[in-house]
Amino acid sequence: MDGLSLSTKRIIRTDEIIAQGKRAVTKLGDSAFTMSYDFIGADNALCAQAQTIHVLIDRRNGKPVPIPPDLRAKLAIYYSES
């Protein structure tokens, strides 16, 4: 998977207000993590789900670096395998 994926569950009108529902860290690796998001429509029904992949890199050489312990601890609060 690339850095972003989106799956719609029903038609979303251009004038519809949607809200972000559940969000979770679904994968927590050495240098990367995956976030999952649910989007809820005005009718309180699930209308879309998305996933984003975040990779920490060294700005000097562009190579992945380990997730720092303080950030890992914060991400772990939102970790869920589902």
Give the N-to-C terminal Cα separation: 17 Å
> Could you list the spans in which at least 5 consecutive residues all have pLDDT below 50?
none
**Sequence of strands across the biggest β-sheet:** 1-4-3-2
Query: What's the average pLDDT?
Result: 93
Under CATH, the homologous superfamily reads: Hotdog Thioesterase
Helix/strand order: EEEEH
Classify the fold: give the CATH topology: Thiol Ester Dehydrase, Chain A
Domains (count): 1
* Shape designation: elongated
Strand content: 35-45%
Proper CATH architecture: Roll
Task: Just give the CATH class.
Answer: Alpha Beta
In total, how many beta strands?
4
The secondary structure category is: mainly beta
Q: Roughly what percent helix?
A: 10-25%
What does the radius of gyration come to?
15 Å
